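Hey, I was hoping to borrow your eyes for a little while. No rush at all, and the record is pasted right below:
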Amino acid sequence: MMRSLFSGVSGLKTHQTRMDVIGHNIANVNTVAYKSSSMTFAALMSQTTQKASGANASTGTGGVNPRQIGLGVKTSAINVNITGQGASQSTGNPFDIMITGENFFIVNNGSENYFTRDGSFYVDGAGNLAMTSIGYNVMGWQVDEETGAIKKDTVSALRIMNTANMSYPPEATTLGYMSGIIDKLDTDVTSDNGRVVNFKLYDSLGYSYTAKFVFKQSDTENDARNIYSLELDKITDADGNEVKMTDEQKKAVFGATQTQELAGKVNFGKGYKWNNDILTDADGNELANLANIKAGTDYTPTTPAGSGPLTAQQQLDNIAKAYGYEGSTEEFLNQIYQVSAADPVNGTAAVTCTIRDMIYGEMASDNATTAPTLASFVDATGADPTKDGSFDTIGRKFTGCTVTYDPANGKFQKVDGSGSSTEITLNLKGAGVGNGNFENIKIDMSGTTNVDNKGTSTIGATNGADDEFGTGSGRRNGAMIGLSVQQDGMIYASYDNGMTKLLGQIATAKFANASGLEKMADNLYAATLNSGQFDGIGVDITAEGDYMSTGQLEMSNVDLSSEFTEMITTQRGFQANSRIITVSDTLLEELTNLKR
């Protein structure tokens, strides 16, 4: 039998195999992350009819090459272009992930790890990140609960939407800072109401509150406009309701009682009159009785007849209103009046009292002089027009701290009465405010200045640390609103309270010889002895400069132009080998015809 006949048969078989490879490539031209294959040929064994001989020096003959007749062709190798990067296809799905580089995703069917470049993932009903096609779990590293960092240990399924991750717990505010300018010419700062600064805070249950601070400037007569009182007016909840604090709690929350030099005048309203202890308005209606205020009891006015009783606080409010301090009763009661000036010759200090002392009949600062009454500033006969009920004040008492700025450059200098040179402290937890759900809050003042800003102050307060986002700011309870995958495979959840949380990291595998991986169904690969084994831990994709891209999938790396060219050469090769068989058959036919 002719050798060429079998050579032709081997050629047909080998070209058919090559056509199978080409057909498989073209069939998978749109398969996600498919890696094309190519086939190489090798000559089959040869039949040696004469061995090679060397040159013979004694006879003078030369050497003869071996005489060999080839017996056909065989498949040398089928190689996979596994490192060839496919083009990217945008999908807009955040869980469609493409690997740039030579790494592989690690997936698991519940018992065995496989590897794939197909990054078409989704979150299943159990909250696991899984392959869209067959549901195999995507493997990665978990978050260390103690440190909050990724723990690169043996890979495990990434369950990113469990119950614990669906919400972010609330946290009480512990830090804050003030920044901006206090302009000494700002009329708000010099007014009776002062410059108001709101500070948002949270308790440990996530409820929001607003602390209302007030800045007031010291007396301008001595040009001490670089010194300001800082007071906590009140704390209100999200509905505007004031958090109840006793006077003792206020002192415990924010500094002790201090005095501030501030010259002013308390004006007695027109039409108001004092009849001994009883205050009346222009219509003769009785508004307050000092005797009842001192006793802390209600007072029932005789005029107008039948009017309801007035509580001690209502009477105090009416008095404050009569002197122009409507809505600012505490501010009115804390005004300081100088009973007598200091006597440097005798070495005696000035004697002072507050309006509160006047109303309650308390002693003045020397503990020997009784404070004058409010009625003592009124000349009931009208003979002395200077005694119209009004009087000058020299300062005020307040509960809070004093903020001082350097008069030379306007830079923040110190905080007095707060226990810190740069911080004020709201001792909310220590004072037991709000059922103990608050934490103590330290507010840094060093970012404020006292410079010219055309009469406008810009000072404001912000929760949290100045140099770190979110640190100590507090927050309400947050619900998950989104998931994102970073280039290094780290998965973050975002919450509607502004927080983010690291949920895990997608691990990857890298092999010494990726071409040695064994192709499985469903775009999977399995490790072999020639690919190198997977160590169970994996590698960070960014270790060698590679990365992941979300919203994209890797397309097949099949080159259709190349495949069609290979198809043509394969067709011609198959056609030529068929001719070998045809011609060989003709020769055999001629041989058999010799018998005739």
